[in-house]
Design goal:
two-stranded antiparallel sheet, alpha+beta, four-stranded antiparallel sheet, NADH Oxidase, single chain
Length: 235
């Protein structure tokens, strides 16, 4: 396959023959594996979705490393159908907040329906979204619904929702382990994000993730997670 990209950089592969390479990761001792898994479980138990952010800046490299980690997620046919747009500019964040709140007001005034609103009530959410301008960064995640060549031709992507969902999960984990708070915000509809951020036609907004430190007066809902016994089935 010919490509204009430098050697070592990713390029889409379609119809190429299977070419395996050796994979021999070092086997982790059982004791270390148990210790690491227990530590991660304990740390993730402390993760909370935060809606009250400090405006204090955070190290950009921490956020970049988290995005790089997220991009190692498995994906359908290894097509990696995601784009992470890192938004720091206050003007853009203000635009995104205004558009999101406009959609959210419509939703909370009736578009969601009473059953959905009832489910949200214990979380204390409403149409006001200060986290979109308070958090020092927004990561706007886009799905690449198909691959768009420079000449306008396209190639289908597979398992896009599943692939991007896994990547976002890894992103949230990476941010938390690095000591940052995050929120998965999904205003509906989200078409305005592609317009504000000037994304190509093959990309569809998946989530807006504010990132930063919790505010000093941060509070979260008094809720509980399901226990392992409630989510695990042994056969």
């Amino acid at each position: 396959m010919t490509t204009s990209q430098p050697a070592g950089e990713w390029a889409p592969i379609y119809g190429e023959p299977y070419q395996p390479v050796p994979y021999r990761p070092a086997r982790m001792p059982a004791e270390e594996s148990l210790r690491n898994s227990a530590d991660l479980r304990q740390r993730m138990e402390a993760r909370r979705t935060v809606r009250m952010f400090s405006t204090e800046p955070v190290p950009e490299q921490v956020v970049l490393d988290a995005i790089a980690t997220a991009s190692t997620a498995p994906s359908g046919a290894h097509q990696q159908p995601w784009t992470f747009v890192l938004v720091e500019d206050p003007g853009l964040r203000k635009q995104i907040r205004a558009a999101a709140e406009e959609e959210e007001r419509i939703s909370y005034q009736g578009r969601l329906g009473e059953e959905w609103l009832s489910a949200l009530r214990p979380l204390g959410t409403d149409a006001d979204k200060p986290h979109l301008t308070d958090a020092p960064y927004l990561i706007v995640v886009f799905q690449q619904r198909y691959y768009l060549e420079e000449d306008g031709s396209t190639h289908k992507h597979y398992y896009v929702d599943e692939s991007v969902g896994i990547a976002v999960g890894m992103l949230l984990t990476s941010l938390h382990v690095a000591g940052l708070a995050a929120l998965t915000h999904t205003p509906s509809p989200m078409r305005f994000l592609g317009e504000v951020l000037d994304r190509p036609r093959n990309e569809k907004a998946f989530a807006v993730i504010p990132v930063g430190y919790p505010a000093e007066d941060c509070v979260v809902p008094d809720i509980r997670r399901k226990s392992l016994d409630q989510v695990l089935v042994r056969r």
